[in-house]
Amino acid sequence: MSVVTQDILDIVQNQQRWRRQGCINLIASENVQSSAVQQIEDNDFMCRYAEGHPNTPEADQRYYEGTRFIDELEALATREMIDLARCQQADIRPISGNQANTAVALALLRGGDTVLCNSIDVGGHISHNPIGVFGRRIQIRGQVLALQKENSINMAFWPTTPDGYHLDGPACVDLVEQKKPQLVILGKSMFLFPEPVNQVAEVCRAHGIPVLYDAAHVLGLILGGQFQHPFAEGAHLITASTHKTFPGPQRGVILGNMNTPEELKWWSSVDRGVMPGSSSNHHLHTIPGLAMTIREMMVHGKNYAADIIRNAQALGTAIDTAGVPVEAKEFGFTKSHQIAINVSSFGSGKEIARRLAESNIISNYNMLPGDQDPRNPTGLRIGVQEMTRCGMGPEQMGELAELMTAVIVKQKSVINEVVKLRSGFSEVLYC
Questions:
Q1: pLDDT-derived band of residue 22, with 50, 70 and 90 as boundaries?
Q2: Choosing a second label site near 388 at 20 to 30 A (CA), which of 115, 143, 314, 348?
Q3: Are the beta carbons of 310 and 297 closer than 8 angstroms?
Q4: Judging by DSSP bridges, how do beta strands 247-256 and 237-243 pair with one another?
């Protein structure tokens, strides 16, 4: 090597050993890729540009020459994503779920418009809220201020049932009738149960209001047929990440189920919201991995999604039985890859997450319904999709619950036991 890089290589190798061999990862927004996907990401596309859409015999749609192979690949991935999602349109160019949301916001909202969505304290994503892209505001010294009055968006939040983890369908319908918003957003970041898409979509269609479903966390469960399917229930748009329960490279996607002339105008606006609205070149080297993950999910998605949900329910049951309260017990804890643990009797969420991390159990602290301070919440958000893909099943969820409760309740270090448990599950499955 002409440049000394050993220190950089050491950091990368340390990360690889630690997170792939010595840790149990329970971050709900992460996953591992198959070796085939990882290997194919090292390709010449990472050096290239391809703004716009793939060229076709009918139209020259790129702003750069030299794109014939990315044209072929991007068109292939788009077609196969449409087939997998059973929808009419797909845009695979966003490079994250948040950027996909940005494109939709730029496309469909103007200053003074109103949006209905989930608030952060009941699981809503930051992009759905005043300081995110849909609110178009900034936070300075604890105050939320409009970037410019003419660009600000009015936001109202969905009402929930008393448990805080379900939306109150009839009350949501009433809110749509009252506010007559320009966009409604369903879906969450803390996402345990399906949303009332049917009820909301029915009233929105009567008023010509687009329905966006943010599936960043649950795309793999949806496409595996194990969660609700928003399009079948009336949604117009789905935005998502492609690296959570959908176990591909870190990218985003926008899916559409648009048929009427007005809906097709919305899709045309979303297209412009992607390019030039929120991106130019779109990280071409990860598109081959996305295409491969689509095919992996075509074959293995149903079993993978079912096993994720089974493991999440098993872990929730085991932790709650061991004496650490898991939220939504009366509803079976979860219907997704996530569980929400209330650790308020043992410390703050931040303290418990750090204590678990010291034993190589990686999670994140998270607000639970009723919490006021996102920096000092009472909960942990746990996701089992990565450990499921590494082969863990309900038996291992029971073992993991014992280790977690030893840390949370008894303040024990269990790092040796964690490394031993993890050592038996290093192969990536469902591919």
A1: very high
A2: 348
A3: no
A4: antiparallel
Alpha-carbon distances of 94 from 252, 255, 266, 336, 343, rounded to whole Å: 5, 11, 17, 24, 36
Phi, psi of 91 (to 5 degrees): -125, 110
Which class for 419: exposed (0-12), middle (13-18), buried (19 or more C-beta within 10 A)? Answer: middle
Distance CA 208, CA 258 (A): 13
Of 332, 354, 337, the C-alpha closest to 28 is 337
Residue type at position 378: T
pLDDT tens-digit series, residues 75-121: 999 999 999 999 999 999 999 999 999 999 999 998 889 999 999 88
Is the four-CA dihedral 18, 23, 25, 31 of positive or negative sign?
Answer: positive
* Residue 189 confidence (pLDDT): 95
Query: How crowded is residue 14: how many other Cβ atoms within 10 Å of its Cβ?
Result: 10
Dihedral sign, Cα of residue 353, residue 354, residue 359, residue 362: positive
- Angle CA(238)–CA(244)–CA(245) in degrees, nearest 5? 80
Sign (positive/negative) of CA torsion 153, 158, 159, 162? Answer: negative
Indicate the pLDDT class of residue 139, thresholds 50, 70 and 90: low
**CA-CA distances (angstroms) from residue 383 to 169, 218, 243, 313, 359?**
26, 11, 13, 11, 17
Q: Check if the beta carbon of residue 303 is closer than 8 Å to that of residue 73.
A: no
212 φψ region: left (φ > 0), alpha (ψ -120 to 50), beta (else): beta
The average confidence (pLDDT) of the chain is 93
Q: Compute the distance between CA of residue 191 and CA of residue 28 in angstroms, rounded to an integer.
A: 10
Residue type, 373: D
Provide the CA 158 distance to its chain's centre, in angstroms. Answer: 20
Q: Are strands 143-146 and 338-342 parallel, antiparallel or unpaired?
A: unpaired
Give the percent of the chain with pLDDT over 90.
83
Rounded Cα distance between 72 and 90, Å, is 16
Residues 6+ apart with CB under 8 A from 371: 121, 377, 378, 379
pLDDT band for 146, please (50, 70, 90 cuts).
Answer: low
Percent of the chain exceeding pLDDT 70 equals 95
